[in-house]
């Protein structure tokens, strides 16, 4: 078994445009996804929704701290799941099940 990080990358503004009802539906889908993982015996090592990139702080090699994300980009990491599964193929299959907005992507990476 190995730990894989499933990064949810998307347009932060797209989430901000969701109505309260649409937002609740997205959350419900994520809770259902986590239930499915549990029923399949897949350990969720960690899972977290991240605040808007506008709340980030970036630390440079010289110790300088700046407000905001490192990259000024439309796509930002919005949350993640870390799961413990046997292979990257299995992690990818789980990544395909993560509820996403049309502009989102999931990046799957193995931990060292």
- Unreliable spans: none
Question: What is the average of the pLDDT values?
Answer: 92
- Strand tally: 6
Q: What's the order of the H and E elements?
A: EHHEEEEHE
* Percentage of residues in helical conformation: 25-40%
Q: Rough shape?
A: globular
Report the C-alpha radius of gyration, rounded. Answer: 15 Å
| Alpha carbon gap, first and last residue | 12 Å
The biggest sheet amounts to: 4 strands, antiparallel
For the largest sheet, list the strands in their spatial order: 2-5-1-6
Assess the beta-strand content as a share of residues.
Answer: 35-45%
Oligomer: single chain
How does the helix and strand content classify structurally? alpha+beta
- Quickly count the helices: 3
